[in-house]
Structure formats: structure tokens, C-alpha cells
Amino acid sequence: MKRIITNFALLPLVFAACTSVPSSNHAEEKDSKIVVDSKVEENSLDKEFIKSLENVNLKLTTSPKQTVTGTAFNSVFSVFVSDKDGAPLASYPVTITYPSEKVDGKVVFASTNILSDEKGMCTFTAEKPVFACNEKLTFAPVAASESSEVLEAVAKKAVSADWKVKSDITRKGAVLFVWEFNEKNRPTRNSYEVLSKLKSYGIWNVGNAPINETTDIGKSLQILYKENYEIIEDQYGYLICGTIKFSQPVTALESGNGYCCTLVAEISAVNMKNGKVVYTNKFEQYAEGSNWNNVTQICKDKISKTIADSLVFGL
Questions:
Q1: Domains in the chain, number
Q2: Neighbours of 276 (CB within 10 A)
Q3: Taking the mean position of all CA atoms in its chain, how far away is CA 273?
Q4: 133 and 64 assigned to the same domain
Q5: pLDDT at position 230, please?
Q6: Which CATH number covers residue 92?
Q7: How many CA atoms, within 13 angstroms, populate the side-chain half-sphere of residue 258?
Q8: Per-residue pLDDT averaged across 55-64, rounded?
Q9: Widest distance between CA atoms in the chain
Q10: 66 — alpha (psi -120 to 50), left (phi > 0) or beta?
Q11: At 272, which helix (H) or strand (E)?
Q12: Residue finishing a domain among 134, 166, 198
């Protein structure tokens, strides 16, 4: 009995499937037409929106100075939204994109939409920054769609302000174990350039680490941390360790008009309070100069500034 019931139950389904093919094709054709019509409508709306942007202007009116982690910006970020004749646009939707957090050393951005007030002003008050970075906050018209044409048009109307937050190395200071190597890959000296670049940021409590001999090169970060901590404890905020080396010997340019140089650096930072490695980065710098001394100095200056900038705004 069970087999008979099962067979009878399947028959209507089989016939239904057979007879539904034409109607399915008809439905697909109808759905296809709806999709095409929808795309045409979307394209039309996108063109209208892009055209409307010709009557919109955003002007940055207020942006704060750089700050330090844990200290609020000294002012708000704001823009004035107007038409092409300069008259304020009230209730105009604006997207604000700003740095919101740092994950695995990379800055993550967030966005929020607000409306301009009756005077055409859009104002954004940032929360107290808790991580260092050197990025941008951007004001832009709210995009009508995600099409490339719309996003490109919106980007042309966008205005940006610096979002600069220095790390607490500017307050807590650091000791350096950063060694330069010569073209034969032999250590020559502590990097005076990195030290001086950090001092140029107004960091007064910075100097070379007490444990700082060529025999210490190659020791693990944890050993270097422990040996330095035994002497200075956490009087300084960070222990900066690393090397600056030639990727290849200085080479004469093919043109015969000078020389070129490429330096590479590996830099790490250890928190002197708890021994945690809080920063690692690699750098490469190319430079050209008139002679050996000139090109190596130019290259050292450039890579040292990049390292210092990264520590101040990325630690």
C-alpha cells in the first residue's frame, strides 16, 4: 500500500513540472524585462544625481590641530554646504568618513551621514582619539548609488581635513637600539639620524639604550628588553630596536650623472612597562645623488624621517 500511495502522490508533481515549462519561460522573460527596466531607471536616476551635484559645493571651514592619543582635538571638523552661487543649502545629506579604530596595525574607517543645518553647516565632533595615525577625515555628498560613475562624481565634490594623532612616545620618550650597517653588512654606529628626527618632534626624553654594543646585535627583543629594564626600568616609554642596511652597494647611474642608493630597515618597539612588542615595520628607501657621500646621506635622511614619522603617528 505504501508504494501505491507514493506513486500516486508523485504523478501530479511530474505532470505539473511538464506543463509548467512554457509558463516558466514566460516568467523568466518577464523577470528579464523587469531587470532591464530597473537598470535603465537606475542609470537615469544616477545621471540626475550627478547632474544635481553641479549645484553643490562643500568648503572646509574648521579643522583641528594635531593632537596626542588620549587628548581630544581642540576643535570640531566642519564644512559649509552651498549651491553654485554660494547660498547655503539646508538639510543637505553629507557623508563623513573618519578613522575609527586600528586593527592589526591598520587604520579602519567608519562613516556617518548627517544633514546640513539651516545655515548650510555640517559639524562633526570627534571622540577622544585612543590610537595614533596620520590620516584624513572626509566630507562628501551622500551617494545616490554605488555605481562607479556616482562614486567618482561624489569624490570630486569631497573635501578633506587632516586627522593627525601622535602616539604617546611624544610624552613617554624612548631609548634606541637602532644600528646602521655598511655596504659590507657590518655594523658601524647607532643611527644618529633616527634619533635626531625623533627629537625634531619635540621628544626631549629620547636617547640611545644603555645596552647598546655590537655584541648585542642579534639578541631577541625580549632579552634586549630585560637587560635594558634592569638598568632603566620604565623611565622611558619604549625600547626602539632595529637595523638600517644597504640592500646593495651604492651604484653609478647608467647615465653617468651620479649614484643611486637603496636602504632597508626593520624596526620594532617594545613597551617598557610590560615588555610587549607593540610595533613592527619594514622600510625601503631609494635615493640618487652626485657622489657616494651625498647619495648615502640623502638616503639616510629620508629613511630616518620615514621611520620617525611612522613611530610618532603609528606606534
A1: 2
A2: 12
A3: 27
A4: yes
A5: 96
A6: 2.60.40.1930
A7: 11
A8: 96
A9: 100
A10: beta
A11: none
A12: 166
The C-alpha angle with vertex 115 and arms to 113 and 120, in degrees rounded to 5, equals 135
Q: Could you report the per-residue pLDDT of 273-289, keeping only the tens digit for each?
A: 999 999 999 999 999 99
Going 202 to 100 to 236 to 223, the CA torsion angle's sign is: negative
- Separation of alpha carbons 299 and 198, rounded Å: 17
Q: Which residues of 131-168 are buried (b: 16+ CB within 10 A; e: fewer)?
A: bbbbbbbbbbbebbeebeebeebbeebbbebebbbbbe
207: nearest Cα among 232, 226, 180: 232
Query: What's the grid cell of residue 65?
Result: 590641530
Rg (the chain; Cα; Å):
31
Number of neighbours of residue 281 by Cβ within 10 angstroms:
17
The secondary element (H helix, E strand) that includes residue 173 is: none
Report the candidate in 26, 23, 128 with the shortest Cα–Cα distance to residue 70. 128
For residue 210, the one-letter residue type is: P
Quick check: is 269 in a domain? Answer: yes
* Nearest-angstrom CA–CA distance, 129 and 71: 7
pLDDT value of residue 40: 57
Dihedral angle, C-alpha 147, 149, 153, 156, nearest 10 °:
100
The answer to the question of residue 23 being in a domain is no
Spatial separation of the C-alpha atoms in residues 311 and 170, rounded to whole Å = 10
